[in-house]
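Morning. Coffee machine broken again, so started the prediction first thing and wrote up yesterday's gels while waiting. Chain of 366 residues, entered below exactly as on the submission form.
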Amino acid sequence: MNQRLESIVQWLRHHQIDFSVFTSPSNIFYLSGFNCDPHERLLALFVFADAEPALVCPELDRTRVEEAGWKGEILGYRDSDNPWEQILESLKRRNAHQAQTIAVEKEHLSLERAESLKYICPSANLVSTENVVRQIRVTKDNREIQILEEAAQLADSAIEIGLKSLRPGCTELDVVAQIEYEMKKKGVESMSFSTMVLFGEKSGQPHGVPGMRQLKEGDFVLFDLGVIVKGYCSDITRTFAYRSVSDKQTHIYETVLQAQSATLEMCKPGIPVRQLDETARQIISQAGYGDYFPHRTGHGLGIEVHEYPSIHDKNEEILREGMVFTIEPGVYLPDLGGVRIEDDIVITSQGARTLTRFPKELQVIR
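Came back before lunch.
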């Protein structure tokens, strides 16, 4: 049994919980090494306090589970099967069908599956695993950090590809298509999320959707993108000016850059997460743009593009070595556009080490 699973087993024993059921693909990948999008089919990992674990998967994925190195029981089922029947038999073999307490991912487990679990374990009370898994996953080991750095370097190159794709009259979707095409040629399986390329006033939408807006002189151009490498995500945002830039645009950009730089300086072990958000927000507010910074300053990064911790002013979590997250302050003005600058960082004993390294000084693309 690997160390990650052993941590769950020790937690179950400490809290006198019979077993835990994981159904989120990200946690199953983290704990078992098997990475899969099951679509509507059931994918579940059962971890027991006093028995060997079991992985439930569609039969069509059995070979992939074995290739991923999983050594525990595999409960494979066909599309015409009811997987809960096999699960009940597996629980009976472990004398676990009379469980009194079962830990589940309350933010992921559907009501239908919770009812199925209660049907085969009618005496069980369901409790949450969310906090324990967060605390295990929140610090990355050296191998995870190496993969995240590889993903970050590819994100840097995607920004460069995006810049080279800019030309008068091109659309946001033209540039998105070029970035994703070139990433596929580099062997990237998929993007971390829908690639965002926004021109002009659309850059003022923090979660804008690329479309047929054409590039014009004087536009801000905002790229927000990331790639998945070996199951881990990167996430970078850079903002540029196209051919010309106004004094107001320059002021907005320099304000965001100052906020990001100051926040990065704060990133070191022992600092409360809330201070990062407070630092960025204070600088942006003092510049007169406080009402135009509507989101948190960052988020955890790893198997999922949004993980714990959430970098906001109510989070009292203390930074510690191995945490990986983004720092991404922004200012968004209606009709004019917006600026966001985002980097992926890892906390070390010396402070923040930046994984994304594309230059951040204001660039006017000619």
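The longest strand covers residues 236-242. Going to sketch it on the whiteboard this afternoon.
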